[in-house]
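Journal club side-thread
Mid-discussion, someone asked how the predicted structure for our own chain would compare to the paper's figures. Pasting it here so we can look after the session.
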Amino acid sequence: MAIKVSGERLFTLQTKDSSYQMYADEKDVLLHTYYGRRIDGENLAELIVRGDVGFSGNPPQAQGDRSYSLDCLPQELPSSGVGDYREDCIRLRHADGSTAADFRFESYEVLPGSYRIPGMPALYDNEKEKGETLVISMREAASSIVVRLYYGVFEEENVITRAVRVENRGKEPVYLDKCLSCCLDYSFGELELMTFVGRHAMERTVERNPVGHTKLEIGSIRGASSHQYNPAAILCSPGTTEDWGDCWGMCLVYSGNFIFSAQQDQRGLIRAVMGIHPTQFCFCLKEGEAFDAPQVILSHSGQGLARLSHQYHRILREHMCRGKYRDVKRPVLINNWEATYFDFDQEKLLAIAEKAAGLGIEMLVLDDGWFGKRNDDNSGLGDWFVNEKKLGGSLQQLGEKIHQMGMKFGLWFEPEMISEDSDLYREHPDWAFQIPGRQPNRSRNQLVLDMSRQEVREYLLERMTNILSKAPIDYVKWDMNRSVCDIYSHGGYSAGEVYHRHILGVYDLLERLLERFPHLLLEGCSGGGGRFDAAMLYYSPQIWCSDNTDAVNRLSIQYGTSFFYPVSAVGSHVSAVPNHQTGRSVPFRTRGHVALAGSFGYELDLNRVTQEEQEQVKEQIAQFHEYYELTHTGSYYRLSEPAGRLCAWAFVDERKDRALVTLVMTSAEGNPAPVHLKVKGLDPDRQYRCSLSGAVRSGRTWMNGGLTLPWTPGEYESLLILFEGMEVR
């Protein structure tokens, strides 16, 4: 059993390589005792040494014992307003105006299978592995509020999940001002924090800082998980590398406002919390009502960062992604955006499709500009009616012509937005977020639709259904191109509820659309990587990684993305040079090698590339198909950081039969030193042939001795090296 309960008070969650333990003490405080490398389940409560700490008060249950203070104990659900002065997880406002929240252990139950969260994504059981669930009920000391803590265990995947449900079992309404999903208290040792930060077109850059008494905090109040801070973080022992050290991941399954913080307290304990951002959050719970917080996916590795990443890649790929394209090979696509922008007609599109089909590309995606009055980004959003005049015919006719070429057909939508210059806005201005009496903040002259309103979602579902059912459409790119503000719902919800209800509305529309069109391949997008989170993978098995298609910048973006998210989820394309975002020119071959570390495609006008480059397109597509199982289901290894002289990574298949190493030179030097590289992930006792030299050596030798290139590649040049395992005789 993955969940072991001893004496009705000690709970030990066991995965293959890790253990998580908590203990309800004699005062019914649920203490966190351990999370790390696997133990045998003995009670580790004795590791918590209490002392009389000045200015840390004692709860009434302590009965004069000055060594017992909530302010010093490691807890699963920190209290609020009753003597723990550190970061809390739940804040309440009671009918009498008081704000205390003091939760004590009441009961537990162990359930088979993984738990679900109403209206939100969560990890699910698949045909290979079913989870197990522990539910612990905690009652507030002086009210009728009950919190149910959910712990899910995926034993083989080394994953433990956390979620919270707050229930009002009393007669009086209670306001929930804060509800975080997870708290981890580390009683001993120093830790470092890795976060993934950035901006539009430069997402998920790795930052690493020691955790001290100054609080480290990231988050988003933009209405989306954001380009600026990804809702995932790693705590690790100082000096932890790819292959050595203890590290703990926390990944929030949520696409809206979030917060993560870590801080060391006065006695050296480090508390890390994660969940919905409390800014502009306030839910009124009436009698019998409940609030469900999103899931946090926890994982521990005692063997460094690479192992931690592998665990997240597997769990997200196999227990979060759903639908046909979780397992079916993704088509190689070409998107018309950087080839035409808004300036296209049927003739241009068919010319791109014809050229693409001849080179082996499998799908044409028609991006922005096919609907309403939409010849730039200042108008038309919300008017989801096909502009047949611009297209020179119906969308059905265009789709059928593309299908006749042997290609699939995809379409861009931005359902969550509305242009002020649109028929929809003129008819329903109250459907957009804007505060009465105030001018709204504008971005691209568009506002945000209030997705908390049922009628808004019904309109969007009807329009998208009408379009998708009348044309042969195989793929939808779902975009979202501005941050949310000016929160005010004309649908009647209070401002403190709207951000969360808005995200629940997005999830509801996505779910219902996919129920109607289960064959669709949905690709998420938010100005590229502004909503690249675990929750969106529940609906879209791939996400456009960044609007920045520059191959050199993509090295950093895709490197940071790889710590949590599988390569199969990364939308990555070959684009034109000079690059439209940076002006940099990178060899066509290198652009292909970088894009190969993702779900592959093109973002250029193939009618303008040279004959030599067209031959490289054929070669790149052949490589995508040849190495698909390696790149999309294999283990991914970061062989270097992107900031150095070279950036290298490797894929190793599950059976360790093959490994594919990609190397990109990021700078040129005079009188260059030799380029040396060590491989990872091979079977040490098996012989492998290297495609670069033909040499055959053991996996142990390739990993420890490595290889030196017989020449030094120039700046931005790249190389693929295949290691093939020899048959075992």
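Post-session note: Residues 78 and 628 are 46 Å apart (CA to CA).
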